[in-house]
Amino acid sequence: MSQVGGEKVVPNGLEAIQYSIDFVTAILLLTGRITTTGIFVVPEGFYLSATGPILGGTVSRGKTQALSYAFGMINVLSALLLILNVIRVTGPYITSRRAFIVFSGELFGIKEIAGVVRMKDMNHSTAAQLGRYIRTQALSITDQNNDHERR
Questions:
Q1: Residues 135, 77: contact at Cβ < 8 Å?
Q2: Cβ distance 49 to 36 under 8 Å?
Q3: Parallel, antiparallel or unpaired: strands 99-104 and 88-94
Q4: Mind listing the pLDDT tens digit for each residue in 21-68?
Q5: C-beta neighbour count of 73 within 10 angstroms
Q6: d(CA 139, CA 149)
């Protein structure tokens, strides 16, 4: 439930379905069943896409351990943004061999997605804390990777 002007607003059925799709996509990203694999650039911004074996694609792995960690961080960050409703699943992209789940939001320059948390409405202190946490985690993974490569 969200609040508008002090009143609690209950999402309608379509919004509930959209939240469910976003949440399931986040779980698939966090469990490694799908991974971010591509980017669609448009004049307004960009969209990320994800696929995996359950959609006919493959799970992306980096050629080095550092790249694998980077893919993992992108997946975790995308999942968090989906859970926080900052980005939304916008739909599928289907080819002859596989399907992709496509997602974006105002953070990526795409402003006309129904139901996303607008940048002006976002709790910036929470967003800053999340950013610091992600940077800290990314740096600790990089440090662990560097220590491992030195051995």
A1: no
A2: yes
A3: antiparallel
A4: 899 999 999 998 999 988 899 888 899 999 999 998 888 777 888 888
A5: 16
A6: 15
What is the Cα Rg of the chain in Å?
17
pLDDT tens digits for range 105-141: 888 888 776 555 555 565 556 656 666 665 666 566 5
What amino acid is encoded at 1 in this protein?
M
Please tell me the pTM assigned to this model: 0.67
Angle between helices 13-31 and 65-83 (to 10 degrees): 160
H or E element at residue 99: strand 99-104
DSSP notation for 19-88: HHHHHHHHHHHHHTSSEEEEEEEETTEEEEEEE-GGGTS-----SSHHHHHHHHHHHHHHHHHHHTTSSE
